Amino acid sequence: MIDHLVIGGGISGLLTAYYLNQAGKRVCLLERGLVGRESSWAGGGIISPLYPWRYPQAVTQLVQWSQQEFPQLTEVLDAATRLDSELLQSGMLILDEPDEKAALQWGADTHSAISVIGAAQVASLEPALQEHPEHTLWMPDIYQVRNPRLVKALREYLLKNGVLIQENTEVTAILREHGQVTGVKTEQTEFKSAQVAVTCGAWSPGLWPSAEKPLPVKPIRGQMLMINSRPGLIKRIVLRDNHYVIPRNDGRILVGSTMEDVGFDKTTTQYAHDLLLKFAYDLMPILQDFKVERQWAGLRPGTPDNIPRIMQHTDIKGLFINAGHFRNGVVTAPASAKLLVNLMLNEQPILDPKPYS
């Protein structure tokens, strides 16, 4: 019998399976499509919230634990799979000024490196910028990861280490008897287990039994562009007005992103294309010399308070959830998955689980 079933093959599900596997458990992961092809693939891979001081303490705690974990995690995955996740310390320049006082106080409270720098230092750090504001926030310790490669490496690692991964397998119902989960039903068959983790992102509410209050997770569409430039043209993550550019090692530049409440519609739009391109060109005119390689959209699982739900079902023993990370799915993924596994295995939790229930 399988010890644990994980439903959903995004980064949350993959890391849940990873930590269960490290604990010596027999794990089966079920994914309705292909592993890592939804919001975990679609995001930018910044190992930080965009404006970290604007988030609740519960999110900050997940972020800080994860930031400490990422170097070790990617080292293990890279060594085992030879798939480079491209963890890179780019640093992040934040060109918005109004939050300066709050940002510096947050940095002092959380012991995070953040400072205000002037135009000359901005120009030195990122010459491609059109303007070099006198009051720019600089976070030198911020990393990024190539998230499509990270989820690919996780998939490969799990397969190498005995985790059963069933793709194109949609779960249609949670099976339970007398208040205890017994497994799941799919379109093809049933899988039996006394513990089931729902990690389906924006699709999680459809599988979470609720007699009274539905799970407060909803899809928020985000559209992005990729510009194919030359390596080294841009070196820093740059953030302004909730939009950003992220430079990859191979010269590709990610430009993102929109926030659209349109349900489960992943259609890309010309409006978003033009909006993001104007932002990129205004920020860094040199990008006009290069072609837009592609545009795509993903669905972030948002919650009203921006806090993910990481907990056991109140009425069904053995049924757990890890969902609702909104724009912070990658940066909070290691801590969220580890905390969920702590709860599943009745271990001492890495963080107080109360804020996530």
Structure description:
This protein is an alpha/beta fold. It folds into two domains: 4-81 and 147-216 and 306-356, 3-Layer(bba) Sandwich (FAD/NAD(P)-binding domain); 218-302, D-Amino Acid Oxidase, subunit A, domain 2 (D-Amino Acid Oxidase, Chain A, domain 2, 2-Layer Sandwich). 28% of the residues lie in helices and 25% in strands. It is built from eight helices and 19 strands. The strands form four sheets. The chain has an eight-stranded mixed beta sheet, sandwiched between helices. The model has no long low-confidence stretch (mean pLDDT 95).
Which secondary structure elements does this structure contain, and how are they paired or packed?
Elements lengths: L3 E4 L3 H12 L4 E4 L8 H4 L14 H25 L6 E2 L2 E3 L5 H11 L4 E3 L1 H7 L10 E4 L3 E2 L2 H14 L3 E3 L4 E7 L2 E7 L3 E3 L3 E3 L19 E11 L8 E4 L2 E5 L4 E5 L13 H14 L7 E12 L6 E4 L6 E5 L9 H12 L13
Parallel strand pairs: 1-2, 1-12, 2-8, 4-14, 12-19
Antiparallel strand pairs: 3-7, 4-6, 5-6, 9-10, 10-11, 13-16, 13-17, 14-15, 15-16, 18-19
Helix pairs in contact: 1-6, 1-8, 3-6, 3-8
